[in-house]
Amino acid sequence: MHELGKLEDLPQGYRDDLTATNLVPLWPSMRAVLPPRIPTRHTQVLNWSYESVRPLLLQAGELTPMEKAERRVLVLANPGHGLENMQATPSIYLGLQLILPGETAPNHRHTPNAVRVIVEGEGAFTTVDGEPCRMERGDLILTPAGKWHEHHHEGTGPIVWLDVLDLPLVYRLESSWAMEGQLQQKRSERDKSFADYSAAGVVPNMGFQRGDSNSPMLRYPWAKTRTCLLEMASEYPEGLLSISYVNPENGTPLFPSIGFGALMLRPGETITLPKRTTPVVFHVVEGAGQMNVVGHASAGAEPLDFINKDTLCAPGYTDITLTNRSATEPAFLISADESPLHQYLGIF
Ligand SMILES: [Fe+2]
């Protein structure tokens, strides 16, 4: 590609006239927005080690009472996007939220889609549109755009979960807003993962209206995902062991914006993931290992170590290799990426 004219090549008077008329010449910036073959990626390779974050999160619990926080969250901000922009990737917001025993987060709803991945603690539940969703380690709890949700914690220790939202995307679409509501009335005693969607390939007929684009299942229990990955491991002695979380009625991703998945690393295994356009976030549910990223300036020469409860991030258009450090135990990671959006846009 040949070199294009620079802004400084233009007479100052002409540049001033353009500015006064709200005009910008494209050619000086064209290579920046349309670089040759590889996109500019602000997302940096990163590990938010839970060991570092946890004491700061508990400190937030001492420094800021719930009335002053409403949602007591430390945002996992990727410095490549500017910390103040609170982005892990272009479309994904990540936050670690702490609720102490007896605390509640008031009923509210918002336009961004949200999933929470339970990191530690027991005895909490999120009520989504009247459906109480128990929160256990590794579970995914969904609150699709516009659904009412409130959090309660009746356990004894702190509870921490990882919020995953498409907030940066919805914010840039100038469509991000929230509202508060009255305490919800429970409509059932248990979430739908217990009965309606307790088995893969079997869906309920009673009073269900098919065709809604939102997943009718709001809680994806980790225990079931883990069992599924272990069953796959006994069937397939080699190759990538991964699953996608989908709407059980129609197989589509949980949200149009963010795709969720989980993968298992066999003991001692090192595996390179298929190269993809979308950046990716990993949350380590079990085990310890290393992530090596090739193809981005932010990746250091050495792989990043990770352990249970860490959250990692890598940009797209890179080669990501994951290693399980244990020779005897499997490792499990939950992933979130922007693949549904990339597919919709035809750039995947
Ligand atoms: Fe919320």
Automatic annotation (TrEMBL):
Residues 96-164 form the Cupin type-2 domain. This is Cupin domain-containing protein. The keyword Hydrolase does not apply. It comes from Oceanobacter antarcticus. It holds the Pfam family Cupin_2. InterPro entries: Cupin_2, GDO-like, RmlC-like_jellyroll, RmlC_Cupin_sf. Coiled coil: none annotated. Keywords: Dioxygenase, Oxidoreductase.
